[in-house]
Amino acid sequence: MKFKLIALDVDGTLLDDDHNLTERTKQTIQDVHDAGCHIVLCTGRAPASTLPILQELGLEGTMITHNGAATVYADEKGQALVNEFTFTLSEIQPMLDYVRREGIHFDVCTPFNMYIERIGEEERLMYQKYLISPKLVTDVTELGIPLVKLTLFGQPEVLDRVQREWDEQKLYGDLRMIRSGDLFIDVMSAKANKGNALKALADELEIEPEAIMAIGNYYNDMEMMAFAGLGIAVANSPEDVKQAADEVTASNNDEGVHQALVKYCLELV
């Protein structure tokens, strides 16, 4: 097989819009794995909400989580942190002041934990959908620990305004702000992205980029798609993400991951 590592985004790519895996996709991924290929989930999710997907696939191994800010190895013994890109609470204080003032929901994450200051029904349902159990605290700034991600959750028009104003004011300083979905904005270390995390893993495994396939659907997937020898966008991706990809497969609701793996892996075995 030409490819030795397959990097898969999860939401909007591997899972359909109801956050389900099809049986055919699971079987195809297992066939590719059995043929000797590393399967790596590369997601904005935390390890705790990524692990159930890995287990549903019948796999263990490395997960690139928090959009590249934390890489974790998982097996039957548990989870171990491989790599992280952190920042301090003081670096996000101007952004915390903004979202508190504007009433925008946010959470902050360490590799294995998420913290929130308030939660409503809309947020509760969102966390439930993503298999997340955040810890409620009075003030996240009192945590006093390094973080890997600040995430905002809100309606697209609200986050559009946040992006515009934070860009104009450079409110995120030396950190990196990305739109990880229509309803989410992530702020992380400038070094943290799926591409850098994938490169670090590939170096460790001694796998050349030409032997890597990456499949994604959104702007936070573009670095890993660019790093991989073959970067594939699913059909439900924004148009500029599809234009940046090497190939386009079917949508997440039409088993695009299955179709890509059959075409570029199994048919070439």
Strand-helix topology:
Blueprint: E1 5-8, H1 10-14, H2 23-34, E2 38-42, H3 47-56, E3 61-65, E4 70-75, E5 78-84, H4 93-102, E6 105-109, E7 114-116, H5 121-129, E8 135-136, E9 149-153, H6 156-169, E10 176-181, E11 184-188, H7 194-205, E12 212-216, H8 222-227, E13 230-234, H9 239-244, E14 247-249, H10 256-264
Parallel strand pairs: 1-2, 1-12, 2-3, 7-8, 12-13, 13-14
Antiparallel strand pairs: 3-4, 4-5, 6-7, 6-9, 9-11, 10-11
Helix pairs in contact: 2-10
Measured between the Cα atoms of the first and last residue, the distance is 5 Å
Overall average residue pLDDT: 96
Summarize the helix and strand pattern as letters.
Answer: EHHEHEEEHEEHEEHEEHEHEHEH
Which structural class best describes the helix and strand composition? Answer: alpha/beta
Tally the helices: what do you get? 10
| Count of distinct strands | 14
User: How would the global form be characterised?
Assistant: globular
Q: What is the C-level CATH assignment of the largest domain?
A: Alpha Beta
Low-confidence stretches: none
Task: Note the beta-strand portion.
Answer: 15-25%
| Helical content (DSSP H or I, runs of 4+) | 25-40%
User: What's the number of structural domains?
Assistant: 2
Could you describe the largest sheet, including whether it forms a barrel?
Answer: 8 strands, mixed
What is the strand arrangement across the widest sheet?
A: 5-4-3-2-1-12-13-14
Oligomer state equals: single chain
Our Rg estimate from Cα atoms comes to: 18 Å
**Which fold name is given in CATH as the topology of the largest domain?**
Rossmann fold
CATH superfamily of the largest domain: HAD superfamily/HAD-like
Which CATH architecture of the largest domain is right?
A: 3-Layer(aba) Sandwich
